[in-house]
Design a protein that fits this description.
The protein has 206 residues and is mostly helical. It has ten helices and no strands.
Length: 206
């Protein structure tokens, strides 16, 4: 990467950090090109060069936040030796990310049906797909040995991520009955049981 490319990447990262700060402080309505120019000091030309439009910036921010979440899940999996410990660690990491990175988690969940997602699906997939492959690649040997049930990847994702995403969404929305500490204690084992294969049983302390 050339020095010019490195400077451009650093500028884009700085703009995305400022965008997330604005979102955290004032909500989605604060994410305007004018506000970001005032916040970062970058020129309008630079802003449009990097993101093309406000929708493009929102898509880049979504991709940035989602990449952070997926990298956290991958790290949790790849530190784990068994299928059970990996799935449990992934569940705990998802909830911990939600707690520790509330603005990013909120932006991910609030953007689920946003108009910018389909319009920038290819760009988002470029960042997301390789990370999802790493998760699938980690699970595959455990499926082959029968420790994880063989299902189409989207169904496995629904069983594992679905409960975590809904728990996080409700917590982020301020639902008083949802507590992340309680969820982190109760959900990981139950999620594991939902995808455990015939050879996936293990002692309680495994």
């Amino acid at each position: 990467m050339s020095p010019k490319q490195r400077r451009g990447e650093a500028t884009a990262d700085r703009i995305l950090a400022a965008a997330l700060d604005l979102y955290a402080a004032q909500g989605s309505g604060a994410l305007t090109m004018t506000a970001l120019i005032a916040e970062t000091g970058v020129s309008s030309g630079s802003l449009y060069h990097h993101f093309g439009s406000l929708d493009g910036l929102n898509a880049a921010l979504y991709s940035h936040c989602m990449s952070g979440l997926l990298d956290t899940l991958i790290a949790a999996l790849e530190r784990s030796r068994t299928a059970r410990t990996g799935v449990r660690a992934l569940a705990e990491a998802y909830l911990r990310f939600t707690r520790d990175n509330r603005p990013a988690a909120h932006f991910i969940h609030a953007s689920s049906y946003a108009g910018f997602l389909p319009a920038h699906a290819e760009r988002i997939a470029q960042a997301k797909a390789p990370r999802m492959r790493r998760i699938a690649d980690w699970l595959r040997p455990h499926v082959e040995t029968g420790h994880v049930i063989a299902l189409p990847d989207p169904l496995t994702e629904m069983l594992v991520i679905g409960p975590l995403a809904e728990t996080s969404r409700r917590w982020l929305a301020g639902a008083p009955e949802v507590d992340l500490t309680t969820a982190a204690r109760l959900l990981p084992e139950r999620i594991w049981q939902s995808i455990r294969g015939d050879h996936g049983s293990a002692p309680a302390g495994a």
